[in-house]
């Protein structure tokens, strides 16, 4: 059984999610939280396999709750479940450690499938929030290395030190990454790479 904690401040939405999930033979809803603070405390006390976490909640928003949950348990598997499909929410959620990002208009089958996927250790991004991927030149192995370190929050000088190259070399790699992924900044490049399963 996959043990799930559902955190959503709207009673009707929370009830609907739980009712849908309880129809699945392999999913057991072990906890319900109505705000971010409750989500954090129940995550610590119940140790669910997967946490469904709304972004906008009282007391503590979902992204802050996610940070606290992951700080306590780096292996926690959290799916952010939201109505927001813009990058202002997607990227901070992924940075905070979400394993999945799913929209609330998902079907029962999609929701259950997402839970199974994340429980199995995979990542998931709702197809509705993924832009049509244009054909881009492949990143080189070194560009992928730089991109992974960018995703870890390292700046150019730190990346240069880690890879034993000059800072100018790193700047060149970063510029090439931006061009190939059609992005203007580091956050957008990391998000684009995550969407395309490059990192």
Helix proportion: 40-55%
User: What structural class should be given to the helix and strand makeup?
Assistant: alpha/beta
* Strand segment count: 6
Number of domains: 2
Q: Termini distance?
A: 30 Å
Question: Please, what is the CATH homologous superfamily of the largest domain?
Answer: Response regulator
Strand content: 5-15%
Description:
- By secondary structure, the chain is of the alpha/beta class.
- The protein folds into two domains: 2-129, 3-Layer(aba) Sandwich (Rossmann fold); 141-195, Arc Repressor Mutant, subunit A, CATH 1.10.10.
- It has helices at residues 11-22, 36-46, 62-72, 87-95, 108-119, 141-151, 156-163, 167-181, 186-195; strands at residues 2-7, 27-33, 50-53, 78-82, 100-103, 124-125.
- Strand 4 (78-82), helix 4 and strand 5 (100-103) form a beta-alpha-beta unit.
- Helix 6 crosses helix 9 and helix 8 packs across helix 9.
- The chain starts with a strand and ends with a helix.
């Amino acid at each position: 059984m996959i043990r799930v904690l559902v955190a959503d401040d709207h009673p009707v939405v929370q009830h609907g999610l739980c009712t849908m999930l309880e129809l699945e033979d392999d999913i057991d809803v072990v906890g319900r939280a109505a705000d971010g603070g409750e989500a954090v405390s129940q995550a610590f006390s119940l140790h669910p396999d997967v946490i469904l976490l709304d972004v906008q909640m009282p007391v503590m928003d979902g992204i802050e709750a996610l940070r606290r949950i992951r700080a306590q348990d780096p292996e926690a598997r959290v799916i952010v479940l939201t109505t927001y499909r813009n990058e202002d929410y997607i990227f901070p959620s992924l940075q905070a450690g979400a394993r999945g990002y799913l929209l609330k208009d998902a079907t029962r089958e999609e929701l259950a499938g997402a839970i199974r996927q994340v429980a199995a250790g995979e990542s998931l991004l709702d197809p509705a929030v993924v832009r049509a991927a244009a054909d881009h030149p492949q990143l080189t192995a070194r560009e992928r290395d730089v991109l992974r370190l960018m995703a870890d929050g390292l700046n150019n000088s730190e990346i240069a030190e880690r890879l034993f190259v000059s800072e100018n070399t790193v700047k060149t790699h970063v510029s090439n990454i931006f061009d190939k992924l059609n992005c203007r900044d580091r956050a957008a490049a990391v998000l684009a790479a995550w969407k395309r399963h490059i990192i």
